[in-house]
Amino acid sequence: MIANRHHLVALFSMIFTNFLFFGKDWCILHLTLVTGDVGAYAHTVLERKGQWQLIIISWRIVATTIDSSTYRYSNSYLQIIYGLSMKYKDYKKAARKHMNTCEVLEDRLKQISNNTELRKSLILNAYYLSGYVIECIVKYGIYDRIGFDKDKDITTLNNGKLTYDQNIRHHRFERYTEHLVKYITRPIPLISNTTDIDKDVVRLFKEWDVIVRYKYDLGSIHERHYLAFCNISREIFRIVSDNTRG
Fold first, then answer.
1. Rounded to an integer, what distance in angstroms lies between the CA atom of residue 176 and that of residue 240?
2. C-alpha dihedral sign at 146, 152, 153, 158
3. Is residue 55 classed as helix, strand or coil in its secondary structure?
4. In this predicted model, what pLDDT tens digit does every residue of 37-58 receive, in sequence order?
5. At what angle do helices 117-145 and 223-242 cross, to 10 degrees?
6. How far, in Å, are 102, 131, 172, 196 from residue 234 at the CA level?
7. Which helix (H) or strand (E) holds 33?
8. Average pLDDT over the chain, rounded to whole?
């Protein structure tokens, strides 16, 4: 049912008041209003500009008179849903974390016989995480080499043809790797140099995306090529690390 005007005025007054309280650095991303016979609810999602911070504020009309001429409400607690403001050096930390996990998976593979479901699962997970090793260390290298402020949030990047929205936020390597090559002239396997790399390994590089987490079969590509991809991801990590500030 449609809430009466008293409900609506109360709810939107509360939203506006809280919006002013948080200040001009906050913007409303989403507003949901749910109404019913007895009460009404409002949920406001705020995002701090340039930050990865979401706050949900909820209000509920908990009682009204029979003629709805008066009302009272309860203002719920503030719930921080996601309070991380990511800096570009976090990319390198993430790359190292994924790389460590891949090494554990590969060590475990040495103890598992061929042609088992467990072995296949570990190989595919190593491939998936190795892609993240490449993604994270490349993005770290880009931010580092362009001299991006280490204290700024990564989403504020806007450097001519290189922006967070158009390039960095995407997972496919083709969306951003060219920007690393501009600053690191040393050949980087798979990214700027495919000499002596098996075509199936290059294919794995070109096809990698977050959706490979749903991959359950090695397909026509031999497991040695998956493992070669994992090894190259570590080499890329080393090359980028050697050519950045640390």
1. 14
2. negative
3. strand
4. 334 444 444 444 444 444 444 4
5. 20
6. 10, 10, 18, 17
7. strand 26-35
8. 77
- 183-190 contacts: CB < 8 A, separation 24 or more? 183/141, 183/142, 183/145, 183/146, 184/141, 184/145, 184/239, 184/240, 184/243, 186/239, 186/243, 188/236, 188/239, 188/240, 189/232, 189/235, 189/236, 190/134, 190/232, 190/236
Query: Which amino acid, residue 206?
Result: K
> Which tokens belong to 37?
């016979």
Per-residue confidence (pLDDT) for residue 84, from 0 to 100: 58
Helices and strands (H and E) in the chain: how many: 6, 7
Is the Cβ–Cβ distance between 23 and 49 less than 8 Å? no
Q: Where do runs of H (alpha helix) occur along the chain?
A: 5-22, 89-109, 117-145, 177-181, 199-207, 223-242
Grouping H, G, I as helix, E, B as strand and the rest as coil, residue 166 is helix
> pLDDT per residue over 116-141, tens digit each?
899 999 999 999 999 999 999 999 99
Distance between CA 4 and CA 128 in Å, rounded? 53
pLDDT tens digits, one per residue of 130-174 = 999 999 999 999 999 999 999 999 999 999 899 999 999 999 999
For the chain, which residues make up each domain, given as ranges? 5-83, 89-242
Classify 46 as helix, strand or coil.
strand
